[in-house]
Design goal:
Layout (H helix, E strand, L loop, with lengths): L2 E6 L5 E5 L17 E4 L30 H4 L3 H8 L9
Length: about 90
């Protein structure tokens, strides 16, 4: 069960209580009967190991596939050349 810290508002003393997550937070100080509030502490996050930074990205290994040749990726240039020709044909005399 989690340990929660509370602060008594009128007397400013702090105390800890073990409560289930499903339990409602305390409203009354067990010592003086005054109102209390739960104290929230920031939690530090520690990232250990690699993979958390942009500089930790994997480098490609030499066992990976070689890059594909440029011929297989090139579009069909004959079809685009005919369409891009904007000069009208010259009539034969």
């Amino acid at each position: 069960m989690p340990l929660y810290e509370y602060q008594c508002l009128p007397n400013h003393h702090r105390f800890e209580v073990r409560q289930s997550i499903k339990d409602d937070p305390l409203d009354v100080c067990p010592d003086c009967g005054g109102p209390v509030r739960r104290v929230i502490h920031p939690v530090g996050i520690v990232f250990k190991g690699s993979g958390f930074y942009a500089t930790d990205s994997r480098k490609s290994s030499s066992s990976s596939k070689p890059p594909a040749s440029s011929e297989s990726k090139a579009p069909d240039t004959q079809a685009t050349d005919k369409k891009s020709d904007t000069t009208p044909p010259v009539p034969a005399e």
